[in-house]
């Protein structure tokens, strides 16, 4: 389980991810990850996402009802599950 914050009420959180070493398995997993977050966006959970210019890092801003929901989202991220990215920081606001 990923340590996040102590928020019990709905809140926003900015997740910072960093890519690990690249390999040939990444491509299907990245597409799966895009679909995963697009589905969350359609449910009103993802507010914004993007990459840092010329870096192997990206971010996602989420709206979650609790830390439990946040942990479930992180733990089910296909790129986390396949060990392609790691969560560097979760910053609630």
What distinguishing features does this structure have?
33% strand; YCII-related domain-containing protein; globular; four-stranded antiparallel β-sheet; 3 helices; alpha+beta; Dimeric_a/b-barrel; 93 residues
Report on this structure.
It is a single chain. The protein is an alpha+beta fold. The protein has a single domain, classed as 2-Layer Sandwich (Alpha-Beta Plaits), CATH 3.30.70. The protein is 32% helix and 33% strand. The chain has a four-stranded antiparallel β-sheet. It is globular, with a radius of gyration of 13 Å. The model has no long low-confidence stretch (mean pLDDT 88).
Could you give the topology of this structure?
Layout: E1 11-19, H1 26-42, E2 46-51, E3 57-64, H2 67-75, H3 78-81, E4 85-92
Antiparallel strand pairs: 1-3, 1-4, 2-3
CATH class: Alpha Beta
Radius of gyration: 13 Å
* CATH H-level superfamily: Dimeric alpha+beta barrel
Portion in beta strands: 25-35%
Number of strands: 4
In order across it, which strands form the biggest sheet? 2-3-1-4
* Helix share bin: 25-40%
- Poorly predicted ranges: none
Global shape: globular
Organism: Mucilaginibacter sabulilitoris
Protein name: YCII-related domain-containing protein
Summarize the structure.
It comes from Mucilaginibacter sabulilitoris. The protein is of the alpha+beta class. It has helices at 26-42, 67-75, 78-81, and strands at residues 11-19, 46-51, 57-64, 85-92.
């Amino acid at each position: 389980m990923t340590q996040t914050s102590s928020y019990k009420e709905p809140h926003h959180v900015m997740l910072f991810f960093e890519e690990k070493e690249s390999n040939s398995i990444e491509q299907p997993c990245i597409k799966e990850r895009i679909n995963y977050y697009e589905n969350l966006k359609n449910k009103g959970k993802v507010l914004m996402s993007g990459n840092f210019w010329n870096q192997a890092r990206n971010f996602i801003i989420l709206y979650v009802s609790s830390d439990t929901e946040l942990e479930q989202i992180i733990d089910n991220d296909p790129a986390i599950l396949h060990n392609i990215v790691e969560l560097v920081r979760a910053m609630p606001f």
